[in-house]
Model the fold of this input.
Amino acid sequence: MKLIPLAFKNILRKKTRSILTMASIVLPLFVICILGTMIRTLEADPTGGKGMFRLIVRHKVSLANFFPEAYREPVKQMPGVAAITILNWFGGQYIDNQPRNMFQRFAVEPESFLAVADEITIVEGTAQDWTSDRRGVLVGSLLAKRYGWKIGDQFVLKGDIFPVNLELTVRAIFKAPDETSVYFNRTYVEESVPWAKGLVGTLWIKADSPDAVARLTRMIDERFENTPYPTKTETEKEFQNGFISMLGNVKLVLNAISLAIGLVILLIAANTMAMTARERVTEIAVLRTLGFPKSDILTMVLAESLILALIGGGLGLAFFSLMFPGFRQGLLESPMGGFAAGMKLFPEVLIVGFLITLAIGLAAGLVPAFRSAQREITDGLRQVA
Done:
């Protein structure tokens, strides 16, 4: 322990170098934590466990294909189905096609929808107000705040998939993990677009147990396998990750970027420690002459590397924790709002980030520390730094 104060003093000799080295750890670690959080979000359930009981049935070919509403009844009769509802993606545009005005728009069956999406809590208006108005719309509180919507306000969604402009009235505002969606009555769409009647984009199912989830996934697809409209049934998380997978192997890319950043930090830290050790060859030889054993020299140099890494890592994690709420809020207000709903400060990401910092500090200081301890006293005294 007597060597720790000496290690701190050595670090403070070159304040500018030490600060820049710690900064080179802080910012990359911030990026690593963001990437780790995104990877963890892909696996997380933003509904607090409720989503694990939900299944989505869609056309096997793609989401762009519809299937008959008649599928609903046989699925509803299957053992393990607690509730079932229809969700059709409406698309369209609000105001314009700028990213800031992009959010999720669904035509649903209001009564059965609330039974399946049971994580939704209506905070303004009532479910009755929404379900009783054919032109009523249920909006997320984040969207209501973004656009200044209040109960009774009206707005228009311009259709594209369905060639109709919907004049909607805000009847209820909800809170949920994902508050970037609006839901309105599919009957309104069907009355305006006759060909849409009886066609379904997705069936959403609430299963009564985890065992039922696995069983229903197989049963539903087998039931319609040899029909003109085969289905694909998957969990809500699999359904959501399907959109991410369209971009390729996202996890592999994020992990590769994190690894590259980690190697860059390691090279920077290793270069700093090697430079520090070279500048103090004669000084270390004098310490050896005064009786400091090799083990003390090894410990002192290695401690300097670890202290730099620990301070940089601590500041990096603190910076990430401080900036994370704003980062998440920015994503929630973007087209990635649905994905950002599952983001939070994952303790495991922070722990892994801290361990990465420790490993970098150890690896960066090991070789300079070992060389400093093993160098002969006469060689050190002979060399002028």
User: Anything to note?
Assistant: The chain has a mean pLDDT of 82.
